[in-house]
Each structure stands twice: as structure tokens, then as C-alpha cells.
Specification:
It is built from 9 helices and 9 strands. By secondary structure, the protein is α/β, with parallel strands linked by helices. The chain has one domain: Rossmann fold (3-Layer(aba) Sandwich), CATH 3.40.50.150. It has a 7-stranded mixed beta sheet. A two-stranded antiparallel ribbon has the order 7-8. Helix 5 links the parallel strand 4 and strand 5. Helix 6 crosses helix 9 and helix 8 packs across helix 9. The chain is globular. The mean pLDDT is about 90.
Length: about 280
């Protein structure tokens, strides 16, 4: 590839990661909806006290603001924004996530939220004042087209959240133990910045504090969630290796169980104002 081709480097790295995942899935076929067993954990009270990330997006919006939330998940940002803004459109491909999102909106009495169940690449939506995308980009192959579509649909501002390391990277040691190979981790915030610069986008970056570090409630919960993320099926040879690895790789503290040596992933907020006109 040409020297300095950040876009191609991103694509190659994501494809390599996905190829590794596909090999694991061939041995232990996953559920059709990857998020089915964990979608409820992405739901939160829209009237909760905001954490640092939510405070920042709420500060960007007002009563007349329209918002497009790309990869809205269970509505952690979309629902609180709907309580403040004129209209929120949530784009989310996972059926189980959409179910959580709609249930949360119904419980909160939110009527100014519309949901488009589709991948962002395929979604047909109107432009909005503010386009947000929270922790979605890591596994996107065609990152240039993904980002340019965000930019094209923003009338005023784009806001993208990304960690310094992709979230699944904290399970890399388990992958090594279960599949006996090094995990090829997905790109994250540092690589995304290189992509944006190559696209001619020069954003502002703000590093936000994390209000809590990730922990599992119990050893059993940790093994169950790691098994899900690694596509380990009950009764498989990989499950036996996972249980053995858990004794070595998990540690307990006052908040629960953590993966030893897992990186503390600072949360980055990347924002820019589009220079091109909107394209619906």
C-alpha cells in the first residue's frame, strides 16, 4: 500500500480481525443476532444523572435540534437526547437492540423518536443538525465511506465517540488461551484520527473521564460474557480452555471481577463541523 495510506491500513486490519473471528464462528456458530444476550445491558434510564459522555452530547443540543444517532444500541444517548431535542432518529441494525430502544422510549413516554433498523451503510434517512456515533466504528471495513456518510448527513456537527483501544481488545488474553493464537485487535481512536486527516477532516478531540471501570459481577458472569464474545459454545473444547484460563486471567476487587492486565481505555470525543453540503 502507499506510505501513509491510513484508510487502507484500517481496512486491512479490520478484515484480518473479521477473518479470525469467522474461523472461530465456524467452529462454534453464533446466534443470528450477536447482541441478543447482552442488549439489555445497553439500556439505561433516560432521566439518569448524566455521565461525562452524555453531558457533552446534551450540551450540543437544544429544544429545536434534530439528532441522528448512528448505531444507537439500546438508546443510552438517543433517549436522553429525545427528552431535550425536537426529533431523534436512531439507526440500529440489531433487532434486540431495537427492541430495548423502543421499550425504553415507551416507558419514558418519548414520542419524538423514530427508529431505522438497518446498517448505517444501507440506511436511508434525512439529514439532521447533529449526527452522533458512539463506539461503532471499530469493526467497520469501509471506514472512509462510513465517515463521509456521517459528514454528509450533518447539518451542523458530527460527534464520534471512540476508545483508545477497541473494546474487545480487553479479551485478547482469553482469545490467546482459547484459540492458541494472538488476537488481531481492531483499530480505534488513534487510527481513526489518521483516517479523518486523510479524508481532509481535521476534528477537535476531547478525552473524557470514565465514570466507572468495567467489571463483571461474578466469575460466572465473566466466563459467560467472555464465552459469548469469543463464540465459545457449551461443551466444546474451547469452553474447557476458557474455564482453565479464567483461573489465571481473572482477578477480583471491590467492584467485581476484571481481566488482569486489561487496558484502561480512555474515551475520546471527536467532533467536527461539516464543510460539504448535506446529502439525503
Amino acid at each position: 500500500m502507499p506510505q501513509g495510506d491510513a484508510i487502507q491500513a484500517w481496512k486491512d486490519r479490520v478484515r484480518s480481525h473479521h477473518a479470525q473471528s469467522i474461523r472461530a464462528q465456524e467452529k462454534n456458530p453464533p446466534d443470528a443476532d450477536f447482541w441478543r444476550t447482552r442488549a439489555s445491558s445497553f439500556r439505561a434510564d433516560p432521566r439518569r444523572d448524566p455521565d461525562a459522555a452524555l453531558r457533552r452530547v446534551l450540551d450540543m443540543a437544544g429544544p429545536d435540534t434534530t439528532v441522528l444517532d448512528v448505531g444507537a444500541g439500546g438508546g443510552r444517548l438517543a433517549l436522553p437526547l429525545a427528552l431535550r431535542c425536537r426529533q431523534v432518529t436512531a439507526v440500529e441494525p440489531s433487532p434486540s437492540m431495537v427492541e430495548q430502544l423502543l421499550e425504553g422510549a415507551d416507558e419514558a413516554g418519548i414520542s419524538n423518536l423514530s427508529v431505522v433498523q438497518a446498517n448505517w451503510e444501507d440506511a436511508e434517512v434525512e439529514s439532521a443538525d447533529l449526527v452522533i456515533c458512539s463506539h461503532v466504528v471499530y469493526g467497520v471495513v469501509d471506514i472512509d465511506q462510513f465517515v463521509l456518510k456521517l459528514d454528509a448527513h450533518a447539518l451542523e456537527e458530527v460527534a464520534v465517540f471512540a476508545f483508545m483501544d477497541s473494546p474487545p481488545s480487553r479479551f485478547a488474553a482469553f482469545w490467546r488461551a482459547v484459540y492458541r493464537e494472538e488476537r488481531l485487535n481492531m483499530p480505534a481512536l488513534p487510527e481513526l484520527m489518521q483516517v479523518l486527516w486523510q479524508l481532509g477532516i481535521h476534528p477537535d478531540v476531547e478525552m473524557l473521564p470514565l465514570d466507572a471501570r468495567f467489571a463483571f459481577e461474578s466469575r460466572e458472569d465473566a466466563v459467560r460474557q467472555v464465552a459469548s464474545f469469543l463464540w465459545v459454545r457449551p461443551g466444546s473444547e474451547e469452553e474447557e480452555r476458557l474455564h482453565i484460563a479464567a483461573d489465571e486471567l481473572l482477578e477480583e476487587d471491590d467492584s467485581g471481577f476484571r481481566v488482569k492486565g486489561a487496558k484502561f481505555r480512555p474515551n475520546g470525543l471527536i467532533t467536527w463541523k461539516p464543510e460539504r453540503g448535506p446529502q439525503c
